[in-house]
Amino acid sequence: MPKLHLITYGCQMNEYDSERVAGLLGDERYELTESPDDADLILLNTCAIREKAEEKVFSRLGQLKSLKRERPKVLIGVMGCMAQLWKGKIQERAPHVDLVFGSAAVARVGEMVARARATGAAVIETGEAPLIKLTARPERPGQLKAFVTVMEGCEKFCTFCVVPVTRGRERSHPPAAIIAEIRDLAAAGVREVTLLGQTVNAYGRDLTPPTDLADLLEQINEIDGVDRIRFTTSNPYNLTSRLMQAIRDVPKVVEYLHLPLQSGSDRVLERMNRGYTRARYLELVDELVGTVPGIALSTDLIVGFPGESGADFEETVTAVERVRYDNVFAFRYSRRPGTPAADMADQVPDETKAQRNTRLLEVAERVGAERRRALEGRVMPVLVDGRSRKDPGEVTGRTRCNRVVNFDAHGRELLGRTVPVLVTRALPHSLRGELAGAGAGERVLAAAAV
Ligand code: SAM
């Protein structure tokens, strides 16, 4: 059987696409291999969101050059966002690449690989294609969690972002196709699904008849076997009271929301074309916290966006302190080709970006640690999803709010089960817990939102 070595960079959507590619090529009798050395086909599923992500890919392609020289029959392909952004230019820097294709062409991966092999000529497929719900995936016995893409593309046109170029306009998959996919996953043992979309809370408005994410969540809630539903990424611009109520009322939807703020300064938000102000974002957060008690929030922030002054940056810091996020993903602004911000005159020096990034992470870490410490002494439902590598008696799982908890299973087989756990200690990146005994049920219910 021919062997496929698949390397995935970037977001969860890329992980999802990689699973589809592995499944489709599995149908063509390719089997996955961990090592590039015995592979017949090496595919890099790439990310173009920041320059650093691209450099990683080019450096990996550089490493693969000697392998291609030694074994010229190995096919090397670049797929995903860099393929879509750079198209045939990829080969200017890496002439040993045989195959370049964007996410719209994933459905035809088998045919493209066969063509590259048969002709020996480079295949480049980066055009648009009709939206297809691909569900092929490799067998993953024991898989408890899965991503499910519910919509593709983005048309917000934030001035820093390449996604509208790399992933095209917003298109939602029909609910019936999503439900069918999740039913299959549940039948295969999956207990938690994460719905994916660049602006997932804009789901459904392009469909005929139009629908929305709240409605989709209610439908997924009815699927037997699924215990938890997550979704990401939400855009504040599309966040509705109806969705907040769904997070509160649909039992399997967890009390956790990733809501990118990007900047705490109105001046910067406007130049980013985010479509909301700091006050509007904070108003949404207050409504969320009022509607869904105990909800945990995380966010994305960019430091050093063109023109960001020290005072603008301080507004981002105070926003973190005000919202009290569980988790903050901070990024240094990276100039992306073809985006309006790349041409803005007042670019911020790298050194300033680095200083701001460090300071922001310090503040975010302090706030996050305070949030974690507040959980000590509480009992929470934990979905057990793995065994500790260090101690086979220990298991690891997540609370509904996505916090990692490690605890002793006392010899019980808990994988895939949701059990009450008493949090005994908050550590820097996780919680320590103890399996809570009988009688913990009431406290579990009270703590279900944590
Ligand atoms: N679609 C989502 C949104 O707009 O909120 C997020 C998608 S993006 C894949 C993930 C994060 O990368 C963004 O939220 C943003 O913080 C960051 N990002 C995007 N473009 C960037 C750039 N040019 N430089 C630095 N960070 C960037």
Q: First CA to last CA: what distance?
A: 48 Å
With helices defined by DSSP (H or I, 4 residues minimum), what is the helix count? 14
List the ligand species. S-adenosylmethionine
Main-sheet strand order equals 2-1-3-4-5-6
State mean pLDDT (0 to 100 scale): 94
Low-confidence stretches: 439-450
**Describe the biggest sheet?**
6 strands, parallel
Q: Fraction of residues in helices? A: 25-40%
Rg, rounded, reads 23 Å
Topology, number of strands:
19
What attributes does this structure have?
single chain; 450 residues; alpha/beta; five-stranded mixed β-barrel; 21% strand; globular; disordered C terminus; binds S-adenosylmethionine
Report on the architecture of this protein.
35% of the residues lie in helices and 21% in strands. It has 14 helices and 19 strands. It has a six-stranded parallel sheet with strand order 2-1-3-4-5-6, with helices on both faces. The protein has a five-stranded mixed barrel with strand order 15-16-17-19-18. Helix 5 links the parallel strand 5 and strand 6. It is globular and about 65 Å long. The chain starts with a strand and ends with a helix. It binds S-adenosylmethionine. S-adenosylmethionine binds at residues 11, 49-50, 154, 156, 158, 160-161, 198-199, 233, 235, 260, 262, 300, 302, 331, 333-334, 336.
